[in-house]
Specification:
333 residues; Rossmann fold; two-stranded parallel sheet
Length: 333
């Protein structure tokens, strides 16, 4: 054992090497890119050894965002940007709520705009479908090259995750793990109050051992919807893992104003004039158009960077995420 590795000089040298690496990267994220530039600028990417928690209420886009990340990361692995002596790394995705076929359908809907998402979900026999099938097949042939492994076990323990990691590591290096989602995991011999803390300790241990980031999705409880301001808060995570929160390096929340606004469409009230109602309706429609494709990523914790929020483009129908200022979406109504 090298005794000098405990000396401050060893730590300083490691730090200077990291600073030199940052200079060489010239503004690129140090870890895995999220594919959203504004988010990368704040997070610095997702780095080895980190546990990243992505939480929200249902219908905010958690799974779509996770699929987006798996796609972007797998493409970077395929292109050799994260090459290693054993070949390209892979993304290991634990989809405990959604069967792998549905998962692939959502990936194709987000990546392949030539056939609308609803057509993929309701594909039927007929001349139109036969013509579209060739397009879908061509898209599938491109996507099937991505280094992504999907485990769609409906009930999985931490030990089960470790077994899957061991199995897949025999034929592919793992570069990124996504768990969808936290509440479907369980740990043996752990009481309910300590469940979340135990899971986070285990995930942190796995991330550190493999030196890869682990993204874990989490549902937030209904208290969020009951608040006037429905943006998630720190306290929403503390209820799940009060002590395990210390093991989490980054905490991200998704919030879509359009989801809540859609349920607040004005209704004509008794004794209200038509003119007044139309004025309220016009105001609501204007605001809805402004935010209908907007998703806010709230950075509540960032151990290696800044916190704050980032605006992203989100097509809920296709499940597609992108940079907010992406020119191809400037003409959306």
């Amino acid at each position: 054992m090298d005794k000098n590795r405990y000396h401050i000089s060893f730590v300083i040298q490691s730090y200077l090497e990291e600073l030199d690496y940052r200079c060489q990267k010239q503004g690129e994220p140090l870890g895995l890119s999220t594919g959203i530039k504004a988010l990368d600028d704040k997070l610095g990417g997702l780095r080895g050894g980190e546990v990243v928690l992505l939480g929200s209420r249902p219908a905010m886009g958690k799974t779509s965002f996770a699929i987006h990340l798996s796609h972007k990361t797998a493409k970077s692995f395929l292109e050799g940007k994260e090459a290693n002596p054993n070949g390209a790394k892979c993304v290991l995705y634990f989809s405990m709520e959604m069967p792998s076929l549905f998962w692939v359908q959502r990936l194709m809907a987000a990546d392949f705009p030539d056939v609308p998402a609803w057509r993929l979900r309701n594909f039927e026999y007929g001349s139109q479908s036969c013509g579209e099938f060739e397009k879908v097949a061509n898209a599938g042939r491109k996507l099937e090259k991505l280094p992504i492994c999907i485990c769609d076990d409906t009930a999985l323990s931490i030990d089960g995750i470790k077994d899957k990691i061991k199995e897949i590591s025999q034929y592919s290096a793992i570069g990124f793990i996504i768990i969808d989602y936290l509440q479907l995991l369980y740990t043996e011999n752990c009481s309910a109050p300590n469940w979340g803390d135990a899971v986070m300790r285990e995930l942190k241990s796995i991330a550190a051992k493999l030196n890869i980031p682990i993204l874990v999705l989490s549902q937030l409880n209904r208290k969020v919807d009951a608040r006037e301001d429905k943006r998630p808060l720190w306290s929403d995570i503390r209820e799940i893992c009060p002590k395990g929160i210390a093991q989490i390096d980054k905490i991200l929340f998704l919030y879509r104003e359009s989801y809540y606004l859609r349920h607040e469409e004005p209704k004509k009230e008794n004794n209200e004039t038509e003119k007044h109602f139309q004025k309220r309706m016009a105001k609501w429609e204007k605001r809805y158009r402004q935010v209908q494709n907007e998703c806010t990523v709230i950075i509540a914790k960032n151990r290696r960077g800044t916190t704050g929020s980032v605006k992203c483009f989100f097509d809920a129908g296709a499940g597609k995420f992108d940079n907010w200022e992406c020119p191809e979406y400037d003409m959306l109504p």
